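anyone seen this seq b4? input:
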Amino acid sequence: MKLAHGLATDAFVLGATDVLIQRANEVVTVAANQDWLELGRFRDVPAKDLFKSLRPFTELGVNCHRHEVVVGAFCRSILIMDRNGATLVQGDKADFDGIQLPDFDGPSQPRLVAFLLGGVGDTSERVEISSST
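predicted toks r here
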């Protein structure tokens, strides 16, 4: 849920006043009453590109970054929805088949991000780090 909280923080900082986080099975969704992906310094960057590279987030503070790239790094599949429909950012659209996404109401919730964990941070993989002295 930390990934969802990061997106929610970004949305609030960029002007949203109502953010909804939901989880259905393995899919987490974040929806807001402002399209935070199109606000801030990078409003001219296509929304799907925000998930692919690290971008500074000076609106939040010095040395801060937008959280979409973290979602991109740790999630197997990402689907974004706006007034124009759904866009698969990464992964397989089949990952969302049979998953009941929350009701999406474009006028009151112009942006929804749905993601499925399983990328680098997949909990089924175990990585051990040791240091030799």
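Residues 120-133 have pLDDT under 50 and may be disordered. The radius of gyration is 15 Å. kinda curious what u guys think
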